[in-house]
Design goal:
Radius of gyration: 24 Å
Order of helices and strands: HHHHHHHHHHHHHH
Number of strands: 0
Shape: elongated
Strand content: under 5%
């Protein structure tokens, strides 16, 4: 699940917090990096389980409407296509997911109000209405519906963002709001892979795409910390009428990380490294910082001061 792009983001965030704090040790920074990966995976588990929670809310809603109809002696014929979807039940019974939620004590209970808001929003969506109008929805129809929910309804959803903020406080998590859209894309990827015959044994994504990603993360941060002064000197040599201390901290860390990757990871193409860190600059620094970062890196490469770059 966690690939190199997300690894770079996590290392950047960890280093920024480390330098900004001033009192943290490298050992604490290493621990914080591993915790950030666990937090991201916990969010993945929570968002995947949201399918069952939202379906359960729909079931309870129908039950309440039925009770109200009986009390008022009115006819009520509910459309149970969504409430009875089998994909949500498969997610609920998934053994790996249930273990993850239980082991980390993860629950939607502190923010259950969000289900009412999301269900109301969902009922207004055209793809939901089309699903509810089907004569007999198939498993593939259900998969398509949930992929739409996770890719269209939930990204940047204010109700969900508010709920995640509440959950962060209750469950001692970090960065859930920041990670939302990225992790939602992982849930969509997971649902695409679901097969009905797998039942509760359906595999979900591992924390890392491979063990190499964790090793890359640890080495990237270790080398960036170890060679900080060396890379600062290299950066300062290419500043025109500017001192390294006046460079924004975020830009400085991005440059340090990029230089670390260029020097210590020769198996990664230089252009790939440049592209990744320019995108990070656009995401996490000021509007024009990417021009500055790109210019410094290009100049360093052009003057061949990074001997490992071909």
């Amino acid at each position: 699940m966690i690939n190199r792009t997300l690894v770079r983001t996590r290392v950047l965030q960890t280093l920024f917090a480390y330098y900004e704090d001033g009192d943290k040790t490298p050992a604490q920074a290493r621990k914080d990096l591993l915790t950030s990966f666990s937090d991201t995976y916990n969010l993945y588990a929570m968002l995947l389980s949201l399918a069952d929670e939202l379906t359960t809310y729909a079931q309870n809603y129908i039950a309440e409407q039925g009770e109200r109809a009986r009390f008022t002696h009115t006819k009520y014929t509910p459309n149970r296509r969504f409430a009875d979807n089998t994909l949500a039940h498969q997610i609920f019974t998934n053994k790996t997911l249930r273990h993850l939620l239980s082991a980390s004590h993860l629950t939607w209970e502190p923010a259950m109000d969000v289900m009412a808001a999301l269900y109301k929003q969902l009922q207004e969506c055209d793809y939901y209405k089309q699903f509810m109008a089907l004569d007999a929805p198939t498993y593939e129809d259900e998969k398509l519906l949930w992929r739409k929910i996770y890719s269209d309804l939930l990204p940047d959803n204010e109700a969900l963002l508010t709920a995640l903020e509440e959950l962060e406080l209750n469950l001692d998590q970090q960065n859930w709001q920041v990670d939302l859209n990225v992790v939602l894309s992982y849930v969509v990827k997971t649902i695409k892979r679901f097969q009905q015959e797998q039942g509760a044994e359906q595999p979900i994504l591992e924390m890392f795409d491979s063990e190499d990603e964790l090793q890359f993360a640890q080495q990237l941060m270790e080398e960036a910390l170890a060679h900080k002064d060396e890379y600062d000197d290299l950066i300062e040599q290419h500043l025109k009428n500017w001192e390294i201390g006046r460079v924004a901290m975020m830009d400085r860390i991005i440059l340090q990380m990029a230089l670390t990757e260029l020097c210590e990871f020769p198996d990664i193409a230089a252009q790939v490294t440049l592209n990744e860190y320019i995108e990070l600059t656009k995401e996490y620094s000021s509007d024009k910082s990417y021009v500055f970062v790109n210019g410094i890196l290009d100049e360093i490469i052009r003057t061949q001061q990074l001997f490992k770059i071909q």
